Amino acid sequence: MQKRINVSVRDIADFSLNQGDIETRAGFSYRESALDGTKNHIRFQKEMIKQYGKDAFTKEVYVEDILENDEVYMVITGRIDGILKTDISDTSDIFIYEIKTTNRDINEIKPSNRPEHLGQAHCYAYMYCKKHNIESIRVRLVYINRENQDSIIFEYKFTFEEIKSIYDELANRYLDWVTGIRKWKVIRDQSIATLEFPFIEYRDGQKKLMKEVYNCINDGVKLFATAPTGIGKTMGVLFPAIKALGAGLVDKLMYLTAKTVTSKVAVDAYKKLEKGGLNLRTICINAKDKVCPLEKRDCDPEKCIRANQYYLRARTCIKEMLHEQFFDRDIIAKFANSYNICPFELSLDLSNYCDLIICDYNYLFDPRIRLQRYFDYENEEAFCFMIDEAHNLVERGREMFSCSLNTKQIQEFKTGIKKEWKALKKSVNTLLNEMKELENEHFSDINEGFISQEDLPSNLIEKVNKCLNDIMMYDLSRIPEDKREGFLDGMFNLLYFARVADFYDKRFTTLFAFDSKGLDVKLMCIDPSYLLKEGMDMGRSSILFSATLEPKRYYMDLLGGDMNMDSYITLDSPFPRENLQIKLVTDISTKYKDRDMSYERIAEILKKEFSRKTGNYMAFFPSYAYMRRVMEIFSVIYPEAVILEQRSNMDDIDRSLFLERFEQFGENTLVAFAVMGGLFGEGIDLVGEMLSGAAIIGPGLPMVCPEREIIKKYFDDNDMSGFDYSYTYPGMNRVLQAAGRVIRSETDTGFVLLIDSRFGTSKYKSLFPKWWNYSNI
Ligand code: SF4
Fold first, then answer.
1. What is the pLDDT of residue 453?
2. Which numbered atom of ligand 1 lies nearest the CA of 310?
């Protein structure tokens, strides 16, 4: 059966002819560049109408053509910027206009540098000639400079035959390409149809999870699933999602993780299925700063050879890569090196041809990083998003949709502005003046302080937008080398600040903080739920899963769930209840004001419980300071124990060395002191004797601070429990995650000590998992 594919003329021309560089202003292209380009188009079109009259110049002319073979029915569409008929009755003088906006000096423009522009105009010309039966036509390629609106026109004349042969070559090349993709999908779907579950048995709860996942994808709704360790949740989500892909319910899968380490679990699950015969093109996308091979990253095509003429080499590279079906960081780096192209950009381009994309949350939700190719244009592919460790998305959402602007940053940005860029210099000075005015308004007689307001600082946003509009006029490649980094960082920050201002509504607040470094203005997202929902709504279905997605109401509220439409399930732990002992110590207060009185007692309890049996243990604290005080006493009263300490600045290597130490067990007792919610509070797998028990000191509440208090007030004002939404639930999530480190397999046994008087209250006990077996000691 033929598959209908819609494609734009621009895609066809870009596909075969784009030999260009990576667009370093990509961050700009989604809004300012497009707006600016549109403005210039409209201005030019108006001038043409004024000069030739409405009957002679027609703007935005829709064209369409169809190409097909046995596999694909390809509909090619586009809009011609303008058609001029100088003599309306004589069809020999018809001009097709293709307008492009540029930052470059128009005298430097050579159409041969961007053959895809002329290619686009060729396609339009052919489609127009074909429809109107025209024998010859002229093409005018117009470049307009953003800064001064100067324009240059390149004119060409073609016969119908000439233009047809160019078009045929371009369009057929694209048709062959999409046919190849279509054929791959047939192979893929056949492998999915026969794919068997890769284990002999389902684990308890796993089958239920799989059924829910499939049904939710089928119904086009979200699933929130609390699936404790041991259920096999990664496979329990991935397997039915792949089946749904094979059944045509979705076109692409995206597996989103909060941390790179957790993506490994998804890769392992995929590899298992691949061994069982699955043909699925799968890619892991890693952050630019992790994959860039250069010591000093500068993506300007004039500075980085791998960005220069990237598209010319990337096409062949991708063609070669598609003989394989799995692409991780190493494989992508290998190909990128052999073609001398940017590995990051290659991973994004390659993802177009992949069925499963494994990446960070950012690539769906963060407006700065989101894969615009899938979500900002009219992409017709239906996605299923699988969101792993979804409890992290609440705080990540807040971070992604908040942005700060400070005086120092703006000043640094200003130093990169060239003398002759007068308009930009002026608008930045006006922005700095506005910051000064805000500083005087709120902090006139104090040296430091903090205030918040519900309204958006509109004057400030206006000045930011003015700077952004002015930036668009200049050729940024002219910024002096030593000023580039500061300028570009400042520019992207301004851009993001304006972007967040677009989202700003009653779910945001503005924070002004002032100290010796100057004023800092933060647009803070309090409730990210609707923005997260908007992200997920770009797909057909989202599966949000975690071992700790309770309480239901809290996570559904904050992660954009709909209590009426979406599904929620909680699964029991598949492990025997008696394997995990929860011991409550409720006669100690770990509240901030009582901590001084608790150090010795806690050290003694740790010694008593951890010395019962030689083994490896962890103790999780609410802060580094608290942790160190107890650790000092513990090391004195229990000198035989080996102590490991988490430090605040640990990198990936430190982290691995820390965890490697758990591979030794049985000779001495090891006690690792760590903080809750940190590097070791979740996402680590210490199976069997590697970890015999853990102590959790306090209910993990976030520190009281102005931002937390704002969150509390917001939810109180909206008839929800502000304290719980701001402190209790995020805190208990850390507790449950830390406790989850102890039992990682069916044969694991161990205990968790919960130390704090609040653990003895019914409120906190109601937040314990139902399968927990707890008692006081
Ligand atoms: S290789 Fe590095 S510097 Fe070059 S374009 Fe890629 S990320 Fe930028």
1. 94
2. 5
Kindly report, residue by residue over 140-154, the tens digit of the pLDDT.
Answer: 999 998 878 889 999
Domain 194-280+357-399+529-570 has CATH 3.30.950.10: no
Distances in Å between the alpha carbon of 146 and those of 30, 56, 346? Answer: 16, 27, 29
Report in angstroms the alpha-carbon separations of 314 from 169, 295, 379: 20, 22, 22
List the strands of the sheet with 383-388, edge to edge.
Answer: 326-327, 282-284, 356-360, 252-257, 383-388, 541-546, 222-226, 567-570
Query: Tokens in use for 155?
Result: 């004119």
Across the chain, what does the average pLDDT equal?
91
Atom 1 in ligand 1: residue holding the nearest Cα: 342
- Ligand 1: residues with CB < 6 A are 22, 288, 292, 294, 297-299, 304, 306-307, 342, 344
Gap from CA of 314 to ligand 1 centroid (Å): 14
Per CATH, domain 577-776 is 2.60.40.10:
no
Atom of ligand 1 nearest to the CA of 292: 2
Could you count the other beta carbons within 10 Å of the beta carbon of residue 518? 17
Domain 3-176 has CATH 3.90.320.10: yes
Q: Which atom of ligand 1 is nearest to the CA of 305?
A: 4
- pLDDT at 517 exceeding the cut of 90: no
Which tokens in the block code for residue 773? Answer: 């077996």
Cα–ligand 1 centroid distance for 294 (angstroms)? 7
